[in-house]
Amino acid sequence: MPSVSDPGYRLVAAAVERGVKVTAVPGPSAVLTALAVSGLPVDRFCFEGFLPRKGGERRSRLREVADERRTLVYFEAPHRLDDTLAAMTEVFGADRRAAVCRELTKTYEEVRRGPLEELAAWAADGVRGEITIVVEGAPETGPQDLGPEELVRRVHVREEAGERRKEAIAAVAAETGLPKREVFDAVVAAKNAARTGPVEGK
After folding, report:
1. Domain ranges, residue 157
2. 24 within domain boundaries
3. What predicted TM-score, i.e. pTM, was given to this entire model?
4. Which residues does the UniProt record annotate as the domain Tetrapyrrole methylase (predicted)?
5. CA torsion through residues 183, 184, 185, 186, sign
6. What is the count of structural domains for the chain?
């Protein structure tokens, strides 16, 4: 599969930008076929299978890979597609690029590409068929790009996934290259601000 073993995704992306329809011959796996036609980087990817059916568990699973830089691949049932894309929009961000691949190599094959927010709106009308979702990995961000609000958000994401605050702070510090004290101070400041609330002007 050239798009997986070679940088063929650049050719696919260029074809999509020019309005050229891209399809694939039947292969051994819907994962590889979806990756090949997605137009997203596929030199490194993770297969995540089906997400949990319950909304809370689904969001928790997505939070576990919110900062994963490799392309993500999911299978999903058509009647849950709109809820899944909405959850991805919430956790990954509205602008994260993705491709929804439907009925690959079959008569009614369709590949929808775009930001997660747009794909969620499209799926709200109902979709049929076998579904494979390909989502681009998280963008690389350096420590200098992360403000206190983002540090607090990352800690909260890990806490909601079941980590203790101390562990979450240590993990965020490790992944950002920042001192643990800086992450801790951001969390404490946010907690204090939430307690006191906004100060009214005179």
Report:
1. 143-196
2. yes
3. 0.64
4. 1-120
5. positive
6. 2
